[in-house]
Design goal:
Chain lengths: 321, 321, 321, 321, 321
Amino acid sequence: MLINCVAYQDGRKLADIPVADISEWVQRPGCFVWVALRDATDAELLEMQEEFTLHDLAVEDARHGHQRPKIEEYGAMVFVVLHLLEMEHGEVRAGEIAIFVGPNFVLSVRNHSEHGFLGVRERCEREPELLRHGAGFVFYALMDSVVDRYFPLLDTFETELDDIESQIFEPGAARRNIERLYALKRRATVLRHAVAPALEVAGKLHGGRVPAVCALTQDYFRDVHDHLSRINAAIDGIRDTIGTAIQVNLSMVTIEESETTKRLAAWAAIFAVSTALAGIWGMNFEHMPELKWAWGYPMALAAITTAAGILFWRFKRAGWL
Amino acid sequence: MLINCVAYQDGRKLADIPVADISEWVQRPGCFVWVALRDATDAELLEMQEEFTLHDLAVEDARHGHQRPKIEEYGAMVFVVLHLLEMEHGEVRAGEIAIFVGPNFVLSVRNHSEHGFLGVRERCEREPELLRHGAGFVFYALMDSVVDRYFPLLDTFETELDDIESQIFEPGAARRNIERLYALKRRATVLRHAVAPALEVAGKLHGGRVPAVCALTQDYFRDVHDHLSRINAAIDGIRDTIGTAIQVNLSMVTIEESETTKRLAAWAAIFAVSTALAGIWGMNFEHMPELKWAWGYPMALAAITTAAGILFWRFKRAGWL
Amino acid sequence: MLINCVAYQDGRKLADIPVADISEWVQRPGCFVWVALRDATDAELLEMQEEFTLHDLAVEDARHGHQRPKIEEYGAMVFVVLHLLEMEHGEVRAGEIAIFVGPNFVLSVRNHSEHGFLGVRERCEREPELLRHGAGFVFYALMDSVVDRYFPLLDTFETELDDIESQIFEPGAARRNIERLYALKRRATVLRHAVAPALEVAGKLHGGRVPAVCALTQDYFRDVHDHLSRINAAIDGIRDTIGTAIQVNLSMVTIEESETTKRLAAWAAIFAVSTALAGIWGMNFEHMPELKWAWGYPMALAAITTAAGILFWRFKRAGWL
Amino acid sequence: MLINCVAYQDGRKLADIPVADISEWVQRPGCFVWVALRDATDAELLEMQEEFTLHDLAVEDARHGHQRPKIEEYGAMVFVVLHLLEMEHGEVRAGEIAIFVGPNFVLSVRNHSEHGFLGVRERCEREPELLRHGAGFVFYALMDSVVDRYFPLLDTFETELDDIESQIFEPGAARRNIERLYALKRRATVLRHAVAPALEVAGKLHGGRVPAVCALTQDYFRDVHDHLSRINAAIDGIRDTIGTAIQVNLSMVTIEESETTKRLAAWAAIFAVSTALAGIWGMNFEHMPELKWAWGYPMALAAITTAAGILFWRFKRAGWL
Amino acid sequence: MLINCVAYQDGRKLADIPVADISEWVQRPGCFVWVALRDATDAELLEMQEEFTLHDLAVEDARHGHQRPKIEEYGAMVFVVLHLLEMEHGEVRAGEIAIFVGPNFVLSVRNHSEHGFLGVRERCEREPELLRHGAGFVFYALMDSVVDRYFPLLDTFETELDDIESQIFEPGAARRNIERLYALKRRATVLRHAVAPALEVAGKLHGGRVPAVCALTQDYFRDVHDHLSRINAAIDGIRDTIGTAIQVNLSMVTIEESETTKRLAAWAAIFAVSTALAGIWGMNFEHMPELKWAWGYPMALAAITTAAGILFWRFKRAGWL
């Protein structure tokens, strides 16, 4: 579905143009065309391929989707794929954006995502002095917008992790903690699969040899690269902490079980002593003098209570109860 | 066993040619020969070595088999080994293909695999404008076909992993989960041993210095490289998840055991109290007034039931039962 | 909030100057301006940007804060972010300092930190022969002061770790050890997130290609780099030791539990034997000759005591009790 | 002990020569000398040093032994150390070979190993067209022979690992599995210590800058390098699998223990109920009407059996028994 | 404390010289000065700084101590720090040596260590043909001596590890094994902290760009580098083995506990059956015909013994007892 198809010159919008005229506008010096598609059909992609003379393999990738984030250069054209991530009912949903950038055009194809870029276009049109940099700057603005939306996810993950950590030494919370840690690791992995290759992409857009179309906007791409490394380092931190937390959780379960075993042992001992004593006075020997005593029964009860009391006190002191 | 031996020119099939004539066809300018062998005998390999003047070490490798995927250059000739993987009764079976590529020939030797390449030849012959690129394009088409068949395996693994993950917090499923995770890790390792070195191979076929025969098809090999990195990253993800899942599974077993221990402790305590009380009233002292009471027995039963009930209620509240 | 705004020449302080005059002083040859801000407002930053003609992106970063430590070059200007760490009630609190360095100015913006740099300025003014090196030396002095304050944190961590290690084989200390190890790992991670990227920063300030403004002070930055690698290696050591200690702790818990189980088993056996024997003599058979014996009861007690004694002695010998 | 001392020219053996004449033969153009020593004495090494003018440090290393595999260049001479591994009573025994290669000589010194190289010499002498390559080829032939004997070890390890894996889910095999896995890891480590540095050695003998004496035999050394990487990858696989297997084994032990605990709990509950019921009817209250009933006893037995039966059935259904 | 201050020429000792004359002797062509200090005071260091014109930062490092091993170049001077390790009462004690090397001087400052270097000086003076290489050779001789004393430590560690490994499957040794493994890991870490950065140091003294003063002794430093890599690889091996051993030890404890639990369960079952049977015949029903039988009691005993015997035999067969 076509969202927008606009021609710009000197940082200002010239006109919404029909798709069929793109190839003419692209020829005009100092002018560039910015097209946005969403869940594009094969026919739309074919039309774009003809208007912009895109490479077969790049169009193929944009059509099939399910690519890793990546950057590829075909002559003067740059082809970039990035993941669009959204939280939905506690799950991370991954969409995709494919961006074709040439010296005088930008074509973005968004798939499986509600994440629109109208705001980017508006902001760009409000800052003509920056938009004057041309296709490279639009490319930066799109990528920056994609990366900016990774931060709220990261925040969600860090909040969730803090929340789990605050309960990690809570008795009885082990099962729930493990389940939450595991689910969090899965979600962090999705973000990582989006960020780590995107970091590589950004790394190729500043510093050493850079595609010609991005040469003037290197400082901006370094900024994006910097954001991505921050996210990446944060994810690594989260993953590392999850690993330790799972290990610590296992320790806590073992410690709790050990305490339960001790308490069980203590009570078992107390009752075993009582039962053994009662059993002895329940034997049927004829000559058991104490059975005849008037105070025999109270004394027996006292003996049992005392034995149990002494054990209770000793276990208490040893911290078993 | 010889499968095919065909000469091509300008992207079109000229003729099926006899093996003995290969060395002549290879001389003709603008013409290239594409030979496919399967489970080749020593005699066949020797004949090929003579016709194409292949290097001893490469022929040796093709004969012995059981190589890691690799690429080697002998002068203008490129020698590549790749693994062919097939699922068979839930096990991954590994075959091998050795490909010799020269400026005007491609020779593929397939071993221990049902995985044929007739489809590749047909598709190539249907697209003469691409086949015109010569031996380098045929080489790409073969490699692409090998790599494409790794994806279904990867899908099987990911489905299996999802299935295990959905049961990882299921009580009582621990043993089966561990067995499945271990088996899955083994299978993923076979795929990894095919993919990781193939990634190195593909990396040498685009970008920096590239063998002359592949110089014009670099964009295609970059595409193969990209597929391989996607698979490789996915396998790394699977392996990482398996590691965490085994750890989590161990935690779950420990947690379950801990819960069993608690329940055991609770019931043991309840019965121990009952038994101890019954033991006390079973003692043979002469002066135990309550034994004479008309309501002694019901009261004793009530006492025992009450004690057991209180314990039951407290354990219930503590979540032990 | 403005802390200081001073012009220097030949290593000596010329005058405290008003902010509005900065752009003039910066023009004078052989003269440089050193400005320190704290928790700067947007207006202050804007004024600085105009006086020093700073790059948008750098000022943006200084305003938003929460950056990873990093270095960025904008033409002849260097922009550096470092973390300021302070211990507060056993927690590590992270502030931030952003430093802009040009050929003839240094601007430091400190955020969320009590950690002042007046001492640095005083020391610099006492050593004019070093301050003569200009902005590069001031930059070094600031960075050195930041890094020097990491060492007390490291010492705290190492003392804490030594303390935990001295209790790691203590029976019953497992839960507390785990909690302390986990908390220590968190704190060490904060330091690591400050040090590891700062190490990268320092690495870019000596050795290979170095920003022009730091060219004469490379030996000093190598010293800072060396301090940072020392801290980094120490943190890695701490993290590694924590990992092993958690594992060892888990082992100790399991060993302790195993010992408890054995002791429980031993006592259970001793009382089970007593109860079983008492139960036998408590049966109501008519023809149980020993019940009639005069010495029956003492013999029964003796039998029970002997059986328990033998068990006790055997368990003692086996180390179960 | 001197094994052989032979002069070659044009790939053919000229003569067995006395050690004292070596320095003359080495001078003759187109001629090279191949000497083999075994457990050489200091005197023999000194003589060789004089005849071949070897470097002090290299001779020192050959004398002391216990080196890591390594390659060192001294001017035009190459000095290589490799490990010779043999299985002996299930243990891996490590010997050593030091090889000195010059433009017209090869000297091999074998220590602590039964592993002879007469076969290598015979094979070389049978292939004069290859031996014509001179000292570099002899060096390759020796190294290839050393590496080839690593494969049977690897096979032993893989067979052993398969064998352990087939028993890893066997109940009751845990202790033995752990012992075998640990022993296997030790043995694999010995092989790894031989292979990993040898891989580095081989890597320096093909590709980039190569010692002059090996320049013509690069393709052969690439083949050796390839064999070594195959072994290295296989060892990494074995080590990784051992790690997972130990972890899985621990899980299996915990699962088995958990099952034992459940069964124990179940039987304990069944008997505790029986004992408690029997204890109640064993109380000495005067007014316990059921004790007087004619069918009291059979009913009590029935009650006990029914209670036990119900528990048994429920535990059976829950999979605890 | 000054140990030695000697001038050398052409590999021979000229004279013991007073410290005050150093700056003159250093000027003489072909002559070099070798000074050794121990636990130097600030005054001594200051004097040395003046005589040799050393860099501030290097002298600072030598004074403060507690540096990581490192190498730094200040113009033509090289400054190196190495750790001196000694075993003392089973603990590793770390001292330090700082070495300043210039074109015609060597100054060594030893701190917190009994480890003297008189032997090095004597050996050098006995080999004038080597000492003729000048300051670079003395530097090598000192470094070689430091590194050589790491080997006995490594041997101690490996012996200790072998000793622990021989007991790792011993029942009941788990706690002691863990404690020893943990202590060994700590000691190995100290050695590693000395060796790993020293390896970096040695790596900068041969091969690529080398400080001028060491240019002629590169082969010797390669030898030192080789020793250090051997030690480093051995420590890595030790650490890896310790990790596995701790894991295996944990498995052994769990296995042992599992066996204890089984034995406990078995005996508990045997006594529970006895007690339950005795309880049944201890009930007070009036109509229990077997209680009247003459052989009732022996039959009951027989029944109890038989039941216990059958259980014992079954548990024995199942390997629980």
